[in-house]
Amino acid sequence: MVVCAWGSRRITMRNLVVLALFVPFICALQLAGENFSPPVLPHTSFGFGGSAIGGSDNTSSVYIVSNTTELREALALPFSKTIYVNGTINGNQLPNGSFATCQDYIDMTGEPGAEIRQFNFTLYILGFNTTYMSMVDQAISDNVTFDGMNATDYKALIDHMNGWRPVVLDTQKAQVGFTFTNNTSLIGLDENSALNGINLYVHSVDNIWIRNLKLVSPKDCFPAPETFPSSWNAEYDAVGLVTSTNVWLDGCELQDQLDGEYVQPDIIDGWQVWSTMSAPKYIVDHQRQVDRFDGLFDCEDGTDNITFSHNIVRNHHKSMLLGGGTKEFNLDLGRMHFTIFGNHFNNSASRNPLMRFGTFDVFANVYETLNTAGPVFNPTNVTLERRTDLPDDAVFEYNLGVYNQSTVQLQDNVFVQTGPDANDTSRIFTISEATLPQFPARVCIHESNATTPPHFLSTLNGHAIDNLTTLAQDTIDFFVENGDAVEGAVIITCEDIGIGYTLPRSFDSAEEVLNYVLEQAGQSLQT
C-alpha cells in the first residue's frame, strides 16, 4: 500500500483519486520526524516585522528538503509549516537531476520543432542595434547574403526575437521561481544551507520567516535592455516581496554567487557596434557588458511590516529596493513599514536601501565600501558644485536612497570605506524623485541610544561624522541646486517621528556596533 504524508494526515491509494480533487497531494516530502532536533538560532523577531511568528513547529508540519522538487512541494503546502533546507539547492536542477543551461530553457519552450526554439539572445540584442540593422537593410538592398543567410530571411528571424524573449523567459522563471503560502518558516538546517540561483517570490502572503540561508539570486538568461548601451532590466531578485505582510528575514547572506565574490558582467555580442562596411563584406566588432542580476531584496505594492536584520548583503550593485515606482504609489502609501537593523552591507554599490513612500528605520548597520568613484560633491564647498570628471558607470554609487514621500529614521550606523576616496561622505545619501514639497520626504537622524552619555555620532573609518544632519542637508541642497530635486520636497525633521518598539540592544560606541554586526550578521547557529 502506498502511504504518503500530507501534514498530519495519511493518504492511501484508496482515497487518492477523491482527495486529489480537493487538496494538493504530496508524496516526495520528508517529515523531519519526532527525533528531529532543530537548529538553535540566535535572535528573536522584533521591529515592524515583530508580529511574524513563522510556521508551525509541530512534528507533523516540519519538513527537510534537499532539492528543487521537495522545496517547491513544501512551499505549496496550504497549512502552517516549517521547512528546513539541507545543503545547497540549485534552482536550475531539473527533476531528472541534470542542471539546465540557458540553451536548455530555449529547448524546453514549446513543442519539439517549434519556431520559438530558434530564439537566440545575441540576435535579440542585435535587433536593437540600429547600426547593425542598417547593415542588414543594406545587404537586402544589395541583394547579398548576410551572416550566411538570405538577408531578408535573416531580418525576419531577428524581428521574431523580441516576441519570443518573454516566452523563453517564462520557461526559466517557472524553473527558478518559488512561491510561498501563508504561515511558512524557511530555515537553513546549518551554516552550509543555501538556495543557489533561486528567486523566492513572496506574493500576497502573511507571516513568513526566512532565516539562516545563503540566498544567491538567479542569473537571468534573457535580460532586456533599458537604455542603449548602458543599463539592463533583469528579471529575478533573490527575494521579492509583493503585497505581503509580517515578514522577518534574519541571519541570511544575499549575494550573486555561492562564494560571495563579485560576478563580472558577461561580454556578449551585439550590444554595441563599430562597423566597416564594403558590400558584400561586413566586418562587425560588437561586444558589450550584459547585466544579468536584479535586486537582492526588493519589496513593493503595499508590502508591510517587515524586519530585515542581521544579514550580509555583499558584492551586488542594486541591492534593496523598498517601494515600487511612482505609478504604484497608491499601493504603498500608508503601508511599507520596514526595520533595517544589524546588517553588514559589504561592497553593495547602491540601494542600501532605496526607500520610497514608506516608513524606514535604519539602525545599527555597517556599510563597508570600496570607494573608487570620487565625491559627487564637496561637502565643504558652499556652492556644492557638481563634479564633471566622474565616470558614467561608477562602481560605488551611494548607500541610502531617500526617494519621494518616504520617512527615514537613522541611528547608530557605521561607515567603513577604503580606496582612493576613503574619506568621501558625499555618497552616504542620494536624493531622487523629490518633486512634491506638499508631501515631503522626511529624514530624522537620532543620536545613539547609548545607555550612558555621551551619545556617539555616526562614524566614517572610526572618526565621528561631525554632523550627519548637516551632511544630509548638504546632499539635499546639492540636488536642489542642480535641478534634480524641488526645494522642500525632502526635509530634515524628527517631529512626530519616533521608534515605536524595543530594539534588540543599545550601543555605547561605534566600535560596539561594528563588533556586534561582524559577529551577528550572516548565517550562524547559537552555541
Automatic annotation (TrEMBL):
Q: Name one GO biological process term.
A: polysaccharide catabolic process
Q: Which Gene3D superfamilies match?
A: Single-stranded right-handed beta-helix, Pectin lyase-like (2.160.20.10)
Which residues does the UniProt record annotate as the domain Pectate lyase?
Answer: 134-389
Task: Indicate the transmembrane segments per the record.
Answer: none
Q: Where in the cell is it found?
A: Secreted
Report the GO terms under cellular component.
extracellular region
Q: Give the record's keywords alphabetically.
A: Carbohydrate metabolism, Lyase, Polysaccharide degradation, Secreted, Signal
Does the UniProt entry include the keyword Glycosyltransferase? no
Tell me where on the tree of life, at the top rank, the source sits: Eukaryota
Write down the Pfam families for this protein, in alphabetical order: Pectate_lyase_4
GO molecular function terms attached to this record: pectate lyase activity
Which N-terminal stretch is annotated as signal sequence? 1-28
Does Lyase appear among the keywords? yes
Q: Which family does it belong to?
A: Belongs to the polysaccharide lyase 1 family.
Name this polypeptide is given: Polysaccharide lyase family 1 protein
Higher taxonomy: Eukaryota, Fungi, Dikarya, Basidiomycota, Agaricomycotina
